[in-house]
Amino acid sequence: MKIGVLTSGGDCPGLNAVIRGIVRKGIRTHDASFVGIRDGWRGLLEDDMFDMTMLDVRGLSGRGGTILGTSRTHPYEDGGPERMREVMAAHGIDSLIAIGGEGTLAGASRLVQEEGLHIVGVPKTIDNDLGNTDYTFGFDTAQSIATEAIDRLRTTAESHHRCMVIEVMGRNVGWIALHAGMAAGAHAILMPEFPVSFDQIAEWVTSAKDRGRAPIVVVAEGFVPEGFDSQVADQGVDSRGRVRLGGIANYLAPQIEEITGIESRATILGHLQRGGSPTAYDRVLSTRLGMAAADLAQHGHWGKMASLKGTDIVSVEMSSAVHSLKSVPLHRWEEAQVLFG
Q1: Which residue is catalytic, options 48, 51, 94, 127?
Q2: What residues sit in the active site (predicted)?
Q3: How many folded domains does the chain comprise?
Q4: Rounded distance between C-alpha atoms, residue 22 and residue 272, angstroms
Q5: Domain of residue 100, CATH code
Q6: Are 243 and 294 in a shared domain?
Q7: What burial class does residue 220 get, using C-beta atoms within 10 Å of its C-beta: 0-12 exposed, 13-18 middle, 19+ buried?
């Protein structure tokens, strides 16, 4: 069997480890051959690909980014499924493994269900917002980077007796903010799932200050502040009309300073959370998901994706990952609040 592999959407620590797991398992166990497709669906639509061997994936488990490149090209652009069939036939490609997040998996699932293409998936996002998998690779690295950054910012905050407002990624969910905030001992954590008034934020910040602490506020980029109808997006929208989140920390810091009288500073971590080497946990998870995806392709389980359930890698429907966002549940929010202030 000849299998095409692509990575699509935002980059994520662990993508290269997935590619390595797919290729090594596919070649050693199933005697498959592989084609690396450059820049996601763009490479398939524009016939931009190369034969991929075990030599191409050596030493990749600890390397960030993706050797295949990525883009946000939509699979129904530039000829869509008909063009894909043409390119796949020209290269003798029997099936595809699509590694991506919500948009990628939704598109791949549609291509299977409506077009009959042979595709299996691997869920990817630092946001940890995909359904039917306990965790996505990249999330552990992102929360670890955010935790280290908060630890570093705490020392300068304490030196100057300031409040630090640290903005983390996560789009419409607060998993990174919750985990990094709890790990770093934040005095307030603000997430899209749960509205919080300025009075409550001020109470938490003032309480920490009154105990001689430098208040640490961790806010997810998708948090909607009191009085706003939508998320803060300093950068507007991208070329596809998708909101570029970011800037909530820059809004909150002066508000906190005005209300509490405590000098406040904002730091936006941004793409630092996507870059660099994946953690050991993400390297192992990525590798296991990649190997499982190779098995799914070999056995013709089209429309399925590899998923983490507990400590086991299982097969689930790709469509189930994008049916709804996996938000932070209420009990996790209530659990964390005892630590605030």
Answers
A1: 127
A2: 127
A3: 2
A4: 27
A5: 3.40.50.450
A6: no
A7: buried
In a domain, 201, yes or no: yes
- Looking at the domain assignment, is residue 335 inside a domain? no
Structure token digits, residue 79: 């000829």
Q: Are residues 148 and 268 in the same domain?
A: yes
Q: Cβ(6)–Cβ(44) under 8 Å?
A: yes
Say if residue 147 is in the same domain as residue 270: yes
How many Å from the N-terminal Cα to the C-terminal Cα in the chain?
58
Binding-site residue numbers for Mg(2+) are: 102
Domain that holds residue 12: 2-130+278-321
Contacts of 74 (CB under 8 A, 6+ apart): 41, 107
Q: Residue 340 domain-assigned?
A: no
**341 residues of the chain, pLDDT tens digit each:** 999 999 999 899 999 999 999 999 999 999 999 999 999 999 999 999 999 999 999 999 999 999 999 998 999 988 999 999 999 999 999 999 999 999 999 999 999 999 999 999 999 999 999 999 999 999 999 999 999 999 999 999 999 999 999 999 999 999 999 999 999 999 999 999 999 999 999 999 999 999 999 999 999 999 999 888 788 877 776 666 677 888 999 999 999 999 999 999 999 999 999 999 999 999 999 999 999 999 999 999 999 999 999 999 999 999 999 888 899 999 999 999 999 99
Burial of 229 (0-12, 13-18, 19+ CB in 10 A): exposed
Give the Å distances, CA to CA, from 305 to 123, 141, 245.
7, 22, 28
Q: Kindly state whether residues 123 and 30 are assigned to the same domain.
A: yes
Active site residue 127: yes
Same domain, 238 and 310: no
Binding residues: 10, 72-73, 101-104, 125-127, 162, 169-171, 221, 265, 271-274
